[in-house]
Amino acid sequence: MDDVHTSGGDSGILDEALERLHASGPERLGRLTNHGPMAVEALVRRGQARTVHRWLDYYRHKLEDMPGRVAPVTDATWREALGDPRRAADWIDHFSRALAERPWREVLAAWWPVLLPGIAGGSTHPVIRVGHAVRGLLAPGGETAPRLAELAHGLGYWAARHTPLPPRAAVALPASAGALAALAAVERIPVQDGPLPDRFAQLASVPVWPTAPAADPDAARDHLTELVAAAVHRYADHGHGEPIMLVHAATAPNAVLRALPALPRALWPASLEAAWAAGAAVTAAYAPADPAPPEETRAAYGEAATSTFEEVFARAAAHGDDHTIKFADTALDVGDERARAAALRGVELNPPAL
């Protein structure tokens, strides 16, 4: 995995950007996610800090004020508030208080098993936001007030949109099946139309992967790393099915992977299970029946063979679309030529924002 460290000045830009964003709610128009905090963290992390405030100037028309509060979330009432999107501000307040009283890793570890079954809520955006927040906190000098606030916003959004996936019949795979084969074995839903909750309601089966339970934390981390790489690689040839939504088959599992270093090792196997469930669900909901023909992917593969990842990510930053930026960021984690091609396909397939 590639790792890019930011300078002190770049870290300051991230904190400034987060402060600009924290007056805004986690969604707009009642269902669309605020991608600002995730995109700016990726831009800063990948050496594009100089573009952050210009990007925010473009993005600010997509921001809405924080929604109104209903009632405080307490130790006695949190269960009834879990999964209620009207309670987003209440949940953010709850986590802001918790993070003021206890170390952030302790809060994350306590709530991770509660939130993990609802990983699909909000089209997987809440867990992705938490993954970016954790990466920001884990960076050298990263435990700043804006980044702790960002974790509160991410966890609060996840709690408000907490939505378990429906039960699904297990489908056996050959013992030797890797993550790429497992994704290829995912059965597409009968009607690939409508919003994601309607698509998820059609889920009926899921391949059992890994075929042996990953009880060992290190094995779970390795399988999760393989899953992220497989989802990125698959996008290069299958992203045309739904270019925006299919990025989540990679970015959601990668958010979980980014959180592992801050979590107790005992939570890693369950984290793999949830990440696979989410990635497979997104694949079933949006994957096309067939890969793109070679003539449609030739340009991306050709450019990937001669480009550095810095050049590829600069293309994504200039393109400006939030999903494209975040997917290129995840592809950079994978760090091979096919991942570069996948990132370039994202640039090709998604409409530019800048």
Number of helices: 17
Distance from N terminus to C terminus (CA atoms, Å) equals 29 Å
The helix fraction, in percent, is: 55-70%
Q: Indicate the mean pLDDT.
A: 96
**Number of DSSP-assigned strands:** 4
Radius of gyration: 19 Å
Strand order, main sheet: write it out.
Answer: 1-2
What's the helix-strand series?
HEEHHHHHHHEHHEHHHHHHH
Q: What is the overall silhouette? A: globular
Describe the structure in your own words.
By secondary structure, the chain is mostly helical. It contains 17 helices and four strands. It has helices spanning 8-21, 36-45, 52-59, 78-81, 88-101, 104-115, 125-138, 145-161, 179-184, 196-200, 217-238, 248-259, 268-286, 294-306, 309-319, 322-334, 337-349, and strands at 27-28, 32-33, 169-171, 205-207. The strands form two sheets. It has a two-stranded antiparallel ribbon with strand order 1-2. Strand 1 (27-28) and strand 2 (32-33) form a beta hairpin. The longest helix is centred in the middle third of the chain and has 22 residues, at 217-238. The model is unreliable at 1-8 (pLDDT under 50).
